[in-house]
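Quick illustration, no need to memorize.
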Amino acid sequence: MSMMIHNKKQRETPSIIRRVSVLSLLLMTTVLSACSTPMTAQNLCELKVLSLLIPKQSEEAVESGSLASIQVLKRSQEKLNQTMDLIQKNDSNHQDLSQMLANSQAISKNIDVIAKNQDNLNRLYDYQIVVFEQIPNIQAEYNLLTDMMARKNYPATQVVIAKNQVFMGERILRSIGSLSKSNEFSRHSMDDFLADLETFNVYLHAQLNGNAELGVERVKDTEMRESLLSIQEDIQVILDSETFKLLQKREPLASTYQAARDNVEISDEIFIKLNQLERNTAH
């Protein structure tokens, strides 16, 4: 929890800007030192550097949603487009040019998708912090409720439901955690998160109001109801968020994370092709 909050604050501090600046400096230094060759070879070398850098930048951009990370990615996009223009101009007869051009255009389009959804990515990042704050409080309250039910000899089914709600809280934390990783984010991870929340809320309402279909009786004890109402207030903070509604739509977040994953795959294709060209040239 505290780590999540710390990370959020850190993202907005100059230390992150310095980290991004170091990344940009690393790109420029690498290009200048490794690509000081004749023009065509230099352009291909710069393209190789970008094929290594853009996947990492794409992942960082979707995972943090920070403006700084998007700006770094956009600068690499600009460099990518410039490099491909130079390759076309200086070596238009290159046999592998058409495929590299198609790949670079696909990467550029994916970067546009990521940049366009910066606000949504940032909102998701903030929403995850809210969930990581609220769920442990809810779990603690349910643990107290479980103890209270046991002391007052409440039906075993009620105790089991209360305990299962704690476990459901763990599932919610795991599923929201998977949304922060570009290699794990998918429609399935969104579906898991939404399904876990729905199940949790169904049983919470059943405890408060009763549900004959589920075989859950209404909790009548005043102290226990106060505890359940407190839990309901906390879970409502999660459910009322605009980001929760965004996740329910699945788009555009699913497409944005897919764009980052596609950049990894396409960049790998470019890197492999450039390595092949280097080997062929050496022979």
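DSSP finds eleven helices and no strands in the chain.
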